Amino acid sequence: MSETNRTGLLKSSLGVAFATFLSRLLGLVRVMLEARVLGAGTVASAWHLAFAVPNLFRRLLGEGALGTALIPIVSHSEEEGGAGRVRAELSVVFAALSALLALIVALVAGGAGMLRMLVENSSIVDVFPVLGSERIRLALLLLPVLMPYAFFICLVGVIGAVLNTRRIFVLPALGALLLNFFLIGGLVSLWRPAGEGVETSVLLNRLAFLVLLSGVIQLLLMLVLLWRCGRFPAISPTAFRDCSVLKRLWHLVLPGMIGGAALQISFLVDRTLAICLGPQAVPALTNVDRIIDIPIGIFALALGSVLMASMARSAARGDLTGLADDLVFSLRHVYFVCIPMAVMVMFFWEPLCRILFLGGNFTESDLEATRLVAIFYGAGIPSFCVLKVVLPAFYSRKIVKPPLYSSLVSIAANIVLNFCLMWHLRQGGIALATVLASMLNNTILLLLLKREGFRLEGRTMVLTAGRCLMVAVVTGAVLYFLYPVLRAQLTLRWFGELPAFLLMLLLFGVGYLGGNLLLRAAEPLELLGVLRRRPRA
């Protein structure tokens, strides 16, 4: 890979990472507000249950298999036929997707309405008592209002994939901020003192309206970006005569959708088993998962989206050497960034969770319940992030079945490991099973790439990971013993131990970066080179 390509890859990744960081940070604020406004009972359950349905379709048809499959198709079409062919094919894809999404929205919203009528007017509750609960009733009332969000956000995700092929990464990523902005504003406006709350149905409908409004605005902004980069669909009768792009897209999307559905089933099994362990298990897994999702989203997803577009261009040119170089370069930086994140969470899980969650209905006992979950999930951060970088090596070449089979094997292993570990380690065992299954998935995928002849530079990877781990552990161990002193000196009345924790984070970053520079590591110099680089006049 040339120096220019490496710089471009890192620069685009850092831009997306910054946008994603803002989104995840606002998401964390939103979650904290939701807990205070909606509570942790019936209203919150109904909101999360109803909102999960459009989000499921977003993961499957927007940001998931469809967007991933579209990138190599657009790259190949542009390489062979130019912008005109891309615009014609996009008109077919968007028309078909819009019709499919409209049908899905109508079926789900109509089905929710019919089910609500059955619950209210028949004896179905006698057969399925859970349908008579207040949270189900509220969710069924809310779902027809929320469901159109799936239409808008799925189109947003697909347009974002097209923009990535034009090396436009940061602006689409910033669009995700809108949902959090709207919901935070709505939650703040609806926050009332105890006994002065807004009526439940009014509160939920207002939040649902804000969700829809954010989806509409995101879609309009993405269409403007698509038009400005010259890839707005060319709608004409001739464009619809050749629908071969739908056939090509279907062959790539179907395995990814199966894998995505299997992953959702695995997630459902994890949470269902956690319910059997007691009331603290599910919140512990969910709260720590929100923390772990931040580094994964900030760097791995950002790098993966940029890498997917870069690899697709290399694959379209038949440049497999460049594709392998992209992968090795990205893996080195994943290790460099994600290994210290893992060490941080493992060493300092307690102050992190205490600052974010402790208070109100979250007790010291709940904090202790997160201990093993945080340690095991934290240890899995590099593995979770590596997966986001390895998968583009397959998808960019339109190879989807091996990742699907590997995903199914790892999901089966995860379920078996859950049963083996959860009875001794409780919710920590479920977290450990997830991490081990992710490691298995990565191992299978890397072995498949090696069998194809990819030069993965195993010795370089081991040395990079070992060096990063050594420096991070030494720095973390020193600060682990220093942190009680910092906390005693810097704990303030209004901010608690947050100043001490932020100072510790700064010291950890300086120590880790300095240690790698002393060992003459290439990664910090490459990152610093991107940050120092000035645009040409």
Mean pLDDT: 76
Uncertain regions: pLDDT < 50 for 5+ in a row? 193-197, 533-537
Q: Helix and strand string, N-terminal first?
A: HHHHHHHHHHHHHHHHHHHH
Q: Mind describing the biggest β-sheet?
A: none
Structural class: mainly alpha
Number of strands: 0
Overall, the morphology is: globular
Question: What is the terminal-to-terminal distance?
Answer: 25 Å
What's the gyration radius in Å? 24 Å
Percentage of residues in DSSP E strands: under 5%
The number of helical runs is 20
Describe the structure.
There is one protein chain. By secondary structure, the protein is an all-alpha fold. It has a domain at 40-166 and 192-242. It contains 20 helices and no strands. It has helices spanning 3-38, 42-62, 65-121, 124-127, 134-146, 148-165, 170-175, 177-190, 200-228, 244-275, 281-317, 320-357, 364-369, 371-379, 381-395, 401-425, 427-451, 458-490, 498-518, 522-532. Mean pLDDT is 76; it is low at 193-197 and 533-537.
How would you concisely characterize the structure shown here?
This protein is mainly α. The chain has helices at 3-38, 42-62, 65-121, 124-127, 134-146, 148-165, 170-175, 177-190, 200-228, 244-275, 281-317, 320-357, 364-369, 371-379, 381-395, 401-425, 427-451, 458-490, 498-518, 522-532.
